[in-house]
TrEMBL record:
NCBIfam families: GNAT_ablB. Gene3D superfamilies: 3.40.630.30. InterPro entries: Acyl_CoA_acyltransferase, GNAT_AblB, GNAT_dom. It holds the Pfam family Acetyltransf_1. Residues 129-280 form the N-acetyltransferase domain. This is Beta-lysine acetyltransferase. Keywords: Transferase. Transmembrane segments: none annotated. SUPFAM superfamilies: Acyl-CoA N-acyltransferases (Nat). The keyword Transferase applies. GO terms for molecular function: N-acetyltransferase activity. It comes from Desulfofundulus australicus DSM 11792.
Length: 280
């Protein structure tokens, strides 16, 4: 995967952050901000030293005002991200060119059209299709489908070993088959200690698009997560994907912001829209 976690401790702050080589970004995992200015400075210097173009810093509501600023501004939020407490996603761009998105205005226009649509979806599995939780026998078909659908992806989902490790640590994969052919897959990457899950890795074979398979998979994943007492459910959807953003809107998820040039997917950096399941 090429990622590594850096931990830095000082008397006035400490931070744990993931260095994502594929997407050239730093993602803060945990922190204590006794000295916010020193913490921000450390992260920016680390990013420049490691060639990272973006820093993503989810902060707790009580820390927002003291950490925001100094080159960090808010791009969005996720309700209940920190064991029920909201997270505010701050971003900094050590490389100025990473801050600018030529397609953002058009994507925001499309988003407004989606948000004007009714929040309602009804669908059923077509005859001849089966939907179930994925197991070990599905790893190689899933890897082949991911490789077919994505030219590049933030995580190596086209690697069977990576998928096996994800399953072993408790991530939930659901699949739809048409006979013996894998038609669609989606997953929940679960952070058990925080009781949260990211709905991700949605891929449908081009031959089966437009059939509502992603929506069915996501609904089943949501139910399984709730049964496991995982109540913070969110997704980062490619802002360029009309279909995936419409799916989450129709399933009742709430738009919470856009992360600019956030990750490397399908050959380039993409803006990602945050969708969050309302706490019910």
């Amino acid at each position: 995967m090429g990622d590594r976690v850096v931990r830095h401790y000082r008397q006035d702050f400490w931070v744990s952050a993931r260095l994502d080589q594929t997407s050239e970004r730093i993602w803060v995992i945990d922190y204590q901000a006794g000295n916010p200015a020193a913490l921000r400075s450390f992260l920016k210097k680390l990013a420049l030293r490691r060639g990272m173009g973006k820093i993503i810093f989810p902060v707790k509501s009580g820390d927002l005002l003291k950490i925001q600023g100094g080159g960090f501004h808010m791009e969005g939020m996720i309700d209940g991200y920190f064991q029920g407490e909201n997270a505010y996603f701050l971003a900094a761009f050590p490389r100025a060119e990473r801050r600018d998105s030529r397609v953002l205005n058009q994507e925001q226009k499309v988003l407004r059209e989606i948000l004007a649509c009714k929040k309602d979806w009804r669908g059923s599995l077509p005859p001849g299709f089966t939907l179930r939780q994925a197991g070990g026998d599905d790893i190689f078909p899933m890897a082949r489908l991911f490789k077919k659908v994505f030219r590049s992806y933030p995580t190596p989902v086209y690697d069977p070993f990576y998928l096996a490790c994800s399953m072993k640590k408790g991530d939930l994969f659901m699949v739809v088959y048409h006979g013996d052919r894998l038609a669609s897959v989606a997953a929940a990457e679960i952070q058990w200690e925080q009781r949260r899950a990211e709905l991700t890795n949605c891929a449908t074979d081009p031959a089966y698009r437009g059939m509502g398979l992603n929506s069915l998979l996501l609904l089943h994943i949501e139910k399984e997560c709730l049964k496991r007492n995982i109540h913070c459910l969110y997704s980062l959807a490619r802002a360029s994907s009309y279909g995936m953003n419409l799916v989450f809107h129709r399933l009742g998820y709430v738009f919470r912001g856009t992360l600019i040039n956030n990750c490397h997917i399908d050959g380039g950096f993409e803006n990602m829209n945050i969708w969050v399941r309302p706490v019910k």
